[in-house]
Amino acid sequence: MTNPLNGVLPVDPTMAAAQAAAAKQSNKSLLDPQAFLQLLVAQLQYQDPSNPVDTSSFMNQTATLSQVQTMNAMSSTLTALVSDQQAQAATALIGKNITYVAASGKQVTGLVTAASLGAAGATLHVGDTDVPLSGVLEVTAPPS
Asked: Of the residues 4, 59, 90, 98, which has the fewest C-beta atoms closer than 10 A?
């Protein structure tokens, strides 16, 4: 019998549970570091003592885990940076006139009186209308 993947071991109940847990998360685009570490530990725990995992393979898996953790940290940092930049941009527009497209489809100009920062992003308050920061077409100084 041929084995298409090197290092794949016979299925045992503990491994099957780990694989089932990973299958539940298959809809995620990335395997989170905790699940990756659990699979790595299970692989080491249930390896055949007479045929252990190749050291270079283990080092490769460890390096991959490190890369995943680094990329997750970078992603979190970039998300926070974008949020901070939106907050700064929104608050800088308070007291200025902006032009945006209203729900009716026509362009409207109005004075920004406040800014809200929420999970969906920054929102500017122009009169009774809330305008997302991404909807701003033009910014001008208010008339003196």
From this structure: 4
